Amino acid sequence: MAGAGSAYHVRVGAEGDSSTAVPKLIRRSLFTGGRAVAATRLVALALSALACKGQTPGDEADTTRRPARDVSASAPGKYVPEVEEGLGASVAILIDNSGSMEERAKGDKRRKYIVAREAIEAMLASTDSFVARQPDFPINVGLYRFSSRVRVMVPVSRYNRAALMAALDSMPEPDGGTAIGDAMERARADLYRAGTFRKYILVVTDGENTEGTSPRRVAREIAQRSEGAVRMYFVAFDVDADRFEFVREVRGEVVGASNGDALRARLDEIYRGKILSEAVDVGETLPAAADSSRRDSAAPSSPPPPPPPSARKDTRP
Fold it and tell me: Are 198 and 137 in contact (CB under 8 A)?
């Protein structure tokens, strides 16, 4: 065994200098241990150490480094509607029902969740007059509440005042965290089942996200994958609107409301002044006129009027 160990020692020494040779402890084990298996294992360990000579401690500790990923090749594509889409507007209303909404609103004896609920009820009342004027124009409204989890009170569907009012009246007392991002994701999915080109997310909240997915990331993804088809509005109720600057970054809108009166005014500006009026401004009510013209063209044509007297031929003998 000593001869074999000496021969091995000569080969290793020939390959490297004394600073990188097999440690003395390993050589001593080879020459005095007398066990071939143990010697073999120690030799393998020594060779491995020599092979790693050029690796620095920093490179070994950093296990998070990975080759740059081609985001454009793996990024998800455009959202695909689950149903055929047409004219109309679909709105998902997201209401904060977290524990902080239990606090009293500024300058008001009522709690914030009650103030918000009544403001949304007043906002939705404007839908009644719009539907009365445009009965053939689809307006879909959904209602969602979020705390630590997201609850669908009314999925995005054809406007139903009774169902929406009943859902608002049945809202429980606020509790838990604030999962804004999760609520946005859920609402976005329902908007792509509603069947309209125009889609809106309207959020009423009094605080920043504390649970679930980051709303900043969700807002960016919605803006990118919808290619601007989903408009986002945030109403910062009794909280600094600048906390939601990320909404503006994706061409959404953020407004502040410090009390109940301001909340009603902001919601009316967004819902009646922008969401409902956009359809009229771009002429999306024209299909109703087109339908009437098609009905007129399909009706039996009346006989042409008689020619004026001056154009009649004189048939007298």
Answer: no
Structure tokens at 141: 């409204």
131 and 216 together in one domain:
yes
Do the beta carbons of residue 223 and residue 229 sit within 8 Å?
A: no
Decide: pTM greater than 0.70.
no
- Do 118 and 185 lie in one domain? The reply is yes
Q: Are residues 90 and 45 both part of a single domain?
A: no
Does the residue 241 lie in any domain? yes
CA torsion 157-160-165-167 (nearest 10°) is -30
- Pair (120, 192) in one structural domain: yes
CATH code of the domain covering residue 96: 3.40.50.410
Task: Write out the residue range of the structural domain in which residue 19 sits.
Answer: 2-49
Q: What is the pLDDT of residues 19-49, one digit of tens each?
A: 444 444 444 444 444 444 444 454 454 445 4
Per the CB < 8 A criterion, the answer to whether 182 and 97 are in contact is no
Residue 68: Cβ-neighbour burial (10 angstroms; 0-12, 13-18, 19+): exposed
The per-residue pLDDT for range 169-219, each reduced to its tens digit, is: 999 999 999 999 999 999 999 999 999 999 999 999 999 999 999 999 999
Into how many domains does the chain fold?
2
- What average pLDDT score do residues 1-30 get? 43
Does 134 lie in the same domain as 31? Answer: no
Q: What is the DSSP letter of 111?
A: B
Contact 238, 96 (CB under 8 A): no
Q: Residue 269: is it exposed, middle or buried by C-beta count within 10 angstroms (0-12/13-18/19+)? A: middle
SS3 243: helix
Task: Please provide the distance, in angstroms rounded to a whole number, between the alpha carbons at the two ends of the chain.
Answer: 148
Residue 130 lies in a domain: yes
Q: How many residues does the chain have?
A: 317
